[in-house]
Design goal:
Largest sheet: 6 strands, mixed
Shape: globular
CATH architecture of one domain: Sandwich
Distance between the termini: 74 Å
CATH superfamily of one domain: HesB-like domain
Number of helices: 2
């Protein structure tokens, strides 16, 4: 029996940047929503699913169960979870909250991986899916039954 000499190199741990960035205003609003529902121990799960007028749609929900492969991090006091498939479509995306007036506001996802988006901002086509405008981000992408853009 031979003993193998292994050369083990220790490397400094370098934290990986989160795939999705959350602005302070978005985190503040989401934390307030969680407090209103008394679910402060939950995290924001960001995901992509099939559907919508452009092929894929964004989703966010509050979740208290991490799944195998999830990326977990904290942004401005908000716990965030992202599954590995959604991470592929959302790498580098930014979630912001824009207050329209005292009573209304909306979350917006600025996604560098989207080739086109519907006017509602909830649906997109990824650059991976190709198409005429795959190399250039376009914020016009066809009609949507929910946003009324035709």
């Amino acid at each position: 029996m031979t003993l193998l000499d292994q050369n083990i190199q220790l490397r400094e741990f370098v934290p990986v940047a989160p795939a999705v960035n959350i602005t302070p205003a978005a985190a503040e609003r989401l934390l307030a929503m969680m407090a209103e529902r008394d679910i402060s121990d939950y995290a924001l799960r960001v995901f992509v699913s099939g559907g919508g007028c452009s092929g894929l749609q964004y989703g966010m929900t509050f979740d208290n169960e991490a799944r195998d492969g999830d990326a977990n991090w904290e942004a401005h006091g908000l716990k965030v979870m992202l599954d590995p498939i959604s991470a592929r479509y959302l790498d580098g995306a930014v979630i912001s909250f824009q207050q329209d007036n005292m009573l209304q506001g909306a979350f917006k996802i600025d996604n560098p991986n989207a080739a086109s988006s519907c006017g509602c901002g909830h649906s997109f086509r990824s650059k991976e899916e190709g198409g005429a405008d795959a190399d250039e981000y376009s914020n016009s992408g066809g009609g949507c039954g929910s946003c009324g853009n035709a």
